[in-house]
Design brief:
The chain has two domains: 66 residues, OB fold (Dihydrolipoamide Acetyltransferase, E2P) (Beta Barrel), CATH 2.40.50; 45 residues, no CATH class. A hairpin with a 2-residue loop joins strand 4 and strand 5. It has a five-stranded antiparallel β-sheet with strand order 3-2-1-4-5, with no helix packed on it. Helices cover 36% and strands 32% of the residues. It is of the alpha+beta class.
C-alpha cells in the first residue's frame, strides 16, 4: 500500500512540475540586475536543431523507471525489474529531456554575422530579430514587429 502511494505521488509531482508556466525568459540570480546589450539584425538562415538533455531528464527517468520496476515481481525478479526499469527510464528520460531549437545565422545591423541557437522559437529567414546578450550568451532572441 505504501509503495502505491509513493509511486502515485511521484508521478503526480513529476507531471505537475512539467506544467509550471513561464511568462518569459528566465535569468540567473547573479545576472538579473546586470546591464544587457541589445543587438538587432535580419535572419539569413534558420535550421532546426535539438539540444541534448542536460542530464536531468535521464536522472528523473531512471528514478521513475526504478520505482515502477520495483513494483514488479518478487525477490530476484524485483531487483532485475528495478535495474531494468532504471536503465529504460534513463534512456526514455534522456530523449524526453531534449529541447527543440533553431540555429539562426543573423546579419546584424552593424554588418557582423553571428550564429545563435535559440530554444523553442519559430523564427525563419528574413525575420528581423532582437538579441539580448548577457555577457557572451544570448539571453533571448525574438522577432521585432
Amino acid at each position: 500500500m505504501l509503495k502505491e502511494i509513493f509511486i502515485s505521488s511521484s508521478i503526480v509531482i513529476l507531471l505537475l512540475s512539467g506544467c509550471a508556466s513561464k511568462t518569459g525568459p528566465e535569468y540567473d540570480a547573479d545576472s538579473y540586475s546586470q546591464i544587457k546589450k541589445v543587438q538587432t539584425g535580419v535572419v539569413l538562415k534558420s535550421r532546426p536543431v535539438s539540444i541534448k538533455d542536460d542530464g536531468s531528464g535521464k536522472v528523473i527517468g531512471a528514478i521513475v523507471g526504478a520505482v515502477l520496476g520495483s513494483t514488479v515481481g518478487s525477490n530476484t525478479g524485483t531487483r532485475l525489474a528495478t535495474v531494468g526499469g532504471a536503465l529504460a527510464g534513463g534512456v526514455v528520460g534522456s530523449e524526453i529531456g531534449k529541447a527543440n531549437a533553431s540555429e539562426l545565422t543573423i546579419k546584424l545591423d552593424n554588418g557582423e554575422t553571428v550564429v545563435v541557437v535559440a530554444k523553442g522559437v519559430n523564427i525563419v529567414a528574413g525575420d528581423k530579430v532582437r538579441i539580448i546578450k548577457d555577457g557572451n550568451k544570448a539571453a533571448t532572441v525574438d522577432v521585432v514587429y
